[in-house]
Amino acid sequence: MLKSTCAILPSRDFDRTAAFYRQIGFEETGRWTGQGYLILRMDDVEVHFFEHKDHDAKACDHGAYIRTTDVDALSAHLSTQNIAAKGIPSFHPAEDKTWGMRELAIIDPDGNLLRVGQFL
Question: How many Cβ atoms are within 10 Å of 107's Cβ, its own excluded?
Answer without folding.
Answer: 21
